[in-house]
Amino acid sequence: MEEYPDSALRILESVEPQQLKVQADKAYYALLLTQARDKNYIVQTDDSLIRIAIKHYDSAENIPMQAKAYYYKGCIYRDANRCGDAIKEFLTAIPLAQKTENQRLLGLIYNNAGYLYYLQDLLEEADSIYQLAEKLAIQRNDTSLWAEALSFQGKINIERGIPYYPKAEEKLLKAFEMTSAPSYKRVQAGIAAALSSLYNSMEFNKKAIQYAQLNISLRSDTAQRYRAFLLLGDAYFKAGQYDSATIYINKSLLSTGYGTKASAYMRLAEIAKAQGDLDRSLALAEKHSLYLDSLHLSKQSNDILIAEKKVVKQQYSNTIERQNSKLHIVITVSILLVCIAGVIYVKLKSNQRKTRTIEQKQALLEKEQQELQQKYRQLKNKLNQKETEITCLQKEINQQHGNEEKKKKLQQELDILTKERNALAKEALEHSEVYSKIERIINSYKKDDESEEQLNDDDWQRFIAETDVRWDKAITRLRTQSELEKEEVHLCCLLLTDFPVANLEYIVRQTRNTIYRKEKEILKKAGCPPGINKLKEFLKNY
Question: What stretches pass through the bilayer (predicted)?
């Protein structure tokens, strides 16, 4: 199976399943055949075979085989693009694999789970699990797993933005160096693609083209080559080589992936605009919007988060059942009165500890709130001082008539003051009481799937005011000029924070798809020019 998976598959396919009479043999055959198909990169979407294995190994409480069976069930759901179901199975398999100390299987689970988190833009979760995969790979001296983990950590850092580019480059180049042997061709292709994307963002055009070409040469799978064509076309576009860019981007349109098609039409629209063909540019931009909508609808990150909670609840229920079973045995064989007295004593002690814990947490929370308010007042004072300095300096600049040298020097000082003022405004917003309340609501939903708090009208008014201070009255101007509704104004304020979109639905009580739809409506009301599809990007430059 490990050395010659193609031979393993041929042998297993020659077996007649009806000849297997013993249930243990049927389960083992189902698991092996699923495993062999996965190792030969055969797409599997039917889970009926692996269910035979899971049913048997669950009843037999065979933990090593349970771990494998749940992992391959997750692989089937991965192939079927059922991300939430796949994560549920992977999270079920992890503790089982840990109990058996099957490090190789654990590495495979981490790798697959991390990829699904990354695919659904759950970057923090993906980064955490790839860090676990990296530690495991180092322990096992597993080059392939290590390179994959480094590669995806690099990709995650690219997604995080410019400050993380050096870290992304370091991890990707390390992974690239580790996979120079021909046996790592598939892994190195993904690393080359990531490096091309990184250098494209850094505007290192020659390097971006070089790694994009290498990516294509390493790809044998036709479906993967479509994305590679787009990457090379994008690199040529950034280098201003529009003819070459158009050739490769058109090749990528044969892909069935919404993301690939959306990106391809966006680039083609930009090329047409640069070449002066505005009608064609608008037509291509419309296609880009259609595929972008389809891409948003295909996102399943909510399914993944729901699956996580289901697994945690199931594991908790299993623990409670085992504890209840043990307690029943103890009560049966022990003296009834002693047990009752013991339970009462434990309960009293537990309640006392809980009361002390609650009181300590309350005191700590009050202390944190006081510190937060004190810090906020300090920042507001500094901000007011900075505003005064800016106003005075602006007046002095306006009074300079004819002395251009001094005016230029004063303008430089004003630019520095403005940057300092913006940094203070951001820090003040993040230390405000309403911002702290938003954080508490989000954390409560993540932990318990509910929150006792919610933003009232006064909170929203304070939040709008704080956001206006931070972004030079952008919200008030946009609300006035575009006649935005109250809920649309609230969404704009939230989008200008650093909270992920996945967390905003806890605050506005709407699904992510509804948030994306409202973004488009706001952009339309604001008369946003073609080419800008992210409301956050538009607001920051408004």
Answer: 327-346
Angle at 213 between CA 224 and CA 160, to 5 degrees: 70
* Dihedral sign computed on CA atoms, order 86, 90, 91, 93: positive
pLDDT at residue 323 in the model:
44
Two structure tokens written together for 118:
């990354």
How confident is the model over 237-271, as pLDDT tens digits?
989 999 999 999 999 888 877 778 888 888 898 89
d(CA 180, CA 425): 48
Strand (E) positions, 419-542? Answer: none
Q: Residues 452-477, buried b or exposed e (16+ Cβ, 10 A)?
A: eeebeeeebebbbbbbbbbbeebbee
Range 529-532, long-range pairs (CB < 8 A, 24+ positions): 530/269, 530/273, 530/281, 530/282, 530/285, 531/266, 531/269, 531/270, 531/273, 531/285
Q: Exposed (0-12), middle (13-18) or buried (19+): which is 200, by Cβ within 10 Å?
A: buried
CA distance 270 to 272: 5
Q: Which residues of 260-287 are buried (b: 16+ CB within 10 A; e: fewer)?
A: bbbbbbbbbbbbbbeeeeeeebeebbeb
Contact (CB, 8 A) for 226 and 254: yes
- Cα distances (Å, whole numbers) of residue 213 to 205, 217, 230, 231, 530: 12, 6, 11, 9, 30
CA–CA gap between residue 387 and residue 500 (Å, rounded): 30
**Percent of the chain whose predicted confidence (pLDDT) is above 70:** 86
Q: Which residue has the tokens 């300590």?
A: 360
Give the residues of the chain that fall short of pLDDT 50. Answer: 301, 304, 309, 312-313, 315-327, 329-331
Cut 0.70: pTM above it: no
State the distance between the two ends of the chain, measured CA to CA, in whole angstroms. Answer: 59
Calpha distance 190→179 (Å, rounded): 11
